Amino acid sequence: MRLIRPAVLADAKQLAQLQERTFRDMFEATNTAEDMTEHCAKSYGEALQQREILNPLVTTLICFEGEAQIGFVQLRQGEIPSCVPAKRALEIQRLYVDKAWHGKGVAQELMQQAIELAQQSKAEQLWLGVWEHNPRAISFYAKFGFVEVGEHIFMVGSDAQRDLIVSRPV
């Protein structure tokens, strides 16, 4: 049975593994091994996930099938880009689903939970950065009403990549 719940400290190790695996599955073919290694070392790991789970400005929801973590979404309060039309907004920092679960509704369930959290927090907008060369993700977000409002640079190792900033009203 599928369950989505907030991450707890005991989830950190498996969550870090899921985060790195899903990022590599999505982007390894389009980045150098060195850039991937550098990015993953800086972005994932049990200690980092523990800090994020304890951070009151970050909410991580994990989707489980039985005991297995199969997807997650992380929302972050913080600086809002000037192109996002809101004084109060939440960022979807990460939303990934294990490759074996693509096309089975997991991403949709996680997005719906993210929208509900944004509503509960009284955010005006939900926003995120999505790589300009990821048409599948861009299409997914468009189905939820996200529209392009700007851009920013996302570093993968030493490679500066252009992300589209997309936003939607809550």
TrEMBL record:
Q: Name one GO molecular function term.
A: acyltransferase activity, transferring groups other than amino-acyl groups
Q: Which InterPro entries match?
A: Acyl_CoA_acyltransferase, Bact_Acetyltransf, GNAT_dom
The UniProt entry, under CDD domains, shows:
NAT_SF
Which superkingdom?
Bacteria
Q: Which Pfam families match?
A: Acetyltransf_1
Q: Which UniProt keywords apply?
A: Acyltransferase, Transferase
Start and end of every N-acetyltransferase domain?
2-170
Q: Which residues form a coiled coil?
A: none
Transferase: is it a keyword of this entry? Answer: yes
Q: Which PANTHER family match?
A: ACETYLTRANSFERASE, AMINOALKYLPHOSPHONATE N-ACETYLTRANSFERASE-RELATED-RELATED
Q: What is this protein called?
A: GNAT family N-acetyltransferase
